[in-house]
Design goal:
Layout lengths: L5 H18 L8 E3 L22 E9 L3 H12 L5 E4 L8 H4 L11 H4 L3 H4 L10 H14 L6 E2 L4 E7 L4 E6 L4 E9 L5 E7 L10 E4 L5 H4 L14 E5 L3 H13 L2 E6 L5 E2 L8 H5 L5 H14 L11 H6 L15 H26 L3 H6 L12 E2 L3 H4 L5 E5 L7 E2 L3 E4 L2 E4 L2 E4 L3 E3 L3 H5 L2 E3 L6 H4 L18 E3 L12 H21 L2 E6 L1 H13 L5 H5 L27 H13 L6 E5 H5 L13
Parallel strand pairs: 2-3, 2-7, 3-4, 5-20, 7-21, 9-18, 10-11, 10-18, 11-14, 12-13
Antiparallel strand pairs: 1-8, 5-6, 6-7, 8-19, 15-16, 16-17, 22-23
Helix pairs in contact: 2-17, 17-20
The chain binds NADPH dihydro-nicotinamide-adenine-dinucleotide phosphate (NDP).
């Protein structure tokens, strides 16, 4: 690392601040418009005919809501624990979750497939590429479902309407839009905790547009032609605008650019776009991997991202390059490292990384003004870094125009054009790559309400923030688990890793409760308070840094003072340590933090949330 003159770093911080201030809006998060379930923008483009069937009325031991990676991993663990009396309800037409909905051209996972794909050793699967394409991941999800006979458990194309705890029978009653009623002993919410519910920019006139438009997570191939590999022949004579330049748009743009008559890329804030450098998997290297390699590779990756010293960097890609925390020089025993010096080291490193990314724009983009517009001026942690070897190159094409709104966004949409400042751009099609609501409650994500003991809804209970233990259970909601939780859980960009551990843990807790003939259990409020304190003690949340970031969903669009942002309340020690903590808790503390009800109590109908306390 080079020693940077302090003046240039200070100047850059000033520039970052100016860029941020320019983007702040009084309406903050309210600038977005939610896409409501069953609305036009929410329609499932991948199901051409809704399968007709009779309404189902069923009692099961476990009901899993969601058939994405979290639901799949939960179901696999249920199979392994020989808890076979379960169902999975999924609103889409297949398994896959994120990878079911997001099928836009160019879709790929930006986390290395070797650590991303779940159950890879169990499945004996060698990914084709170091960074898998969306179709490969979707196919892989389906193959997991087939391998563990999960299709026979799945109720697809079915949207949950309500989940309600029945205190008399001590069961969850779940209803669906197909007239189904399920009664379940345990309810597992695996229905998309992080970025599931698409949103539109609140631009006036969206509804007046008479051309074709859709959200990136509902790609309309019947209009564009082609498939996730590209070849969008339906756009040959079309003028297309894509609104948004986040991680999704970065992957889409090269494919529309290749096909459309003209593409307008409407930018509010440029992304930091680093090298991808994808490659095929080497079978020779693959054959050298020893059992347990994926867990070790994942743990090593996570450790580097939270700054735990490692002797090697197994993944060694741009993630660990950009977000790897630089290690300060060792200090003598008994000497406390100087926090100001550590901060300076981190600032310098970050500045150096962003300078490298800005220099890359100049190397690739021919027109200097366009290149300047495409340079990101914020620190690496403000927005998700992107990795792509075709995006910036697209701006050298004559059929691609960057509309740099300099932080303001689109002003208005009319029947045939988008309007920015004095400019009007006639288009046939608008693609909204405007993202998703972030880490909303399971009720909000799924578009259904969850009522616990005494008819209290989960949203009411969590009005002032999530209250839980490990992000997985909450007081007042007996026999209910969350898998895929972010808030009060551990933070990772390799989501399937944490989900795999949560799913294994939750099913193990159910298995232990079963072994003790416990039919109800409910987390105590004391346990919730204990966990909140533990999170606070180990917090890595830097409010000042987050507040100073350019607006986006990482910092509640630039205002963290009203509401805790997405990553504020996470277990900061690291995801690997979080999973160890879950195992220790199962082995020791678990029984004292629940109020339990046994089967014998149930038979006399006296079981409530605290009938019988069992300490094995
Ligand atoms: P984002 O929320 O990251 O981006 C939304 C984009 O829309 C931003 O560029 C935003 O600008 C822009 N925008 C919003 N309102 C307006 C407006 N009024 N006018 C013009 N532009 C506007 O959504 P994405 O779908 O790109 O990404 C969401 C997340 O999905 C990522 O952060 C990542 O976690 C995940 N993802 C993961 C991938 C993977 O490989 N694993 C791939 C793709 C996505 P501004 O920045 O100014 O707010």
């Amino acid at each position: 690392m080079t020693d940077l003159p302090t003046a240039s770093l200070d100047n850059m911080k000033k520039r970052y601040r100016e860029e941020r201030d320019r983007r702040l809006r009084a309406d903050g998060e309210d600038q977005y418009v939610a896409i409501e379930p069953n609305s036009e923008f929410d329609a499932d483009p991948y199901v051409h005919q809704v399968e007709r069937r009779e309404a189902i009325s069923e009692n099961v031991e476990v009901l899993v809501i969601g058939g994405g990676i979290a639901g799949l991993q939960t179901a696999v663990n249920l199979r392994r624990a020989e808890i076979d009396d379960f169902r999975i309800i999924e609103k889409g037409g297949d398994f896959g979750g994120t990878w079911y909905w997001n099928r836009y051209p160019g879709i790929a996972c930006d986390v290395e497939s070797y650590i991303y794909l779940p159950l890879i050793e169990d499945m004996g699967y060698m990914p084709k590429l170091r960074y898998s394409t969306g179709p490969e991941i979707l196919d892989y999800c389906r193959s997991i479902a087939k391998h563990f006979s999960l299709y026979e458990k799945a109720i697809l194309q079915t949207r949950v309407l309500e989940a309600r705890w029945d205190a008399t029978d001590c069961r969850w009653v779940v209803t669906s839009d197909r007239g189904d009623t399920f009664s379940a002993r345990h309810l597992i919410l695996a229905n998309g905790a992080l970025l599931h519910r698409p949103k539109l920019a609140g631009i006036s006139g969206i509804e007046t547009f008479e051309g074709h438009s859709f959200h990136s997570s509902r790609w309309d191939y019947s209009y564009t032609g082609g498939d996730p590999q590209g070849n969008l022949n339906g756009l040959r004579n079309k003028r297309v605008a894509i609104i948004g330049t986040g991680a999704t748009a970065i992957q889409i743009v090269p494919h529309i650019a290749e096909a459309a008559k003209h593409l307008y890329v409407v930018q509010r804030t440029p992304s930091a776009v680093d090298v991808r450098n994808n490659s095929g998997t080497s079978p020779e290297w693959w054959s050298t991997l020893e059992p347990g390699w994926q867990r070790r590779r994942r743990a090593n990756f996570e450790a580097l991202l939270v700054g735990t010293p490692q002797t090697e960097d197994l993944v060694a890609d741009q993630w660990t390059e950009i977000w790897g925390v630089p290690q300060p020089p060792p200090v003598a025993d008994g000497v406390v490292p100087d926090p100001a010096a550590q901060r300076e080291l981190a600032d310098n490193y970050d500045f150096e990384q962003m300078e490298r990314i800005r220099a890359r724009v100049d190397e690739i983009v021919a027109d200097p003004d366009t290149a300047e517009s495409l340079k990101p001026y914020f620190t690496t942690h403000c927005k998700r870094p992107c990795f792509n070897d075709e995006y910036l190159q697209s701006f050298n094409r004559t059929n691609v125009t960057l509309i740099d709104t300099r932080g303001r966004g689109v002003d208005r949409i009319s029947s045939s054009a988008i309007h920015v400042g004095d400019g009007s751009f006639e288009v046939d099609c608008i693609v909204y790559a405007t993202g998703f609501e972030a880490a909303v409650s399971p009720a909000r994500a799924g578009g259904f309400q969850i009522y616990g003991r005494d008819g209290v809804s989960l949203d009411e209970r969590w009005r002032d923030g999530v209250k839980s233990l490990h992000g997985l259970y909450t007081h007042g909601f007996p026999n209910m688990f969350l898998v895929g939780a972010i808030r009060q859980s551990a933070l990772t960009i390799n989501f399937p890793f944490i989900v795999e551990e949560q799913a294994r843990h939750v099913v193990e807790v159910i298995r232990l409760l079963r072994a003790e003939h416990m039919v109800t259990f409910e987390l105590s409020e004391v346990a919730e308070r204990r966990w909140a304190l533990e999170i606070e003690e180990h917090s890595i949340y830097d409010e000042e840094m987050t507040q100073n970031c350019t607006p986006g969903f990482y910092n509640n669009e630039g205002d963290v003072t009203q509401q805790r942002p997405l990553f504020a309340d996470v277990y900061g020690v690291g995801p690997d340590e979080y999973t160890e903590l879950l195992a220790q808790w199962r082995a020791s503390g678990m029984w004292s933090e629940f109020e339990l009800g046994s089967a014998s109590a149930l038979s006399t109908q006296t079981v409530g949330h605290a009938v019988e306390f069992t300490q094995p």
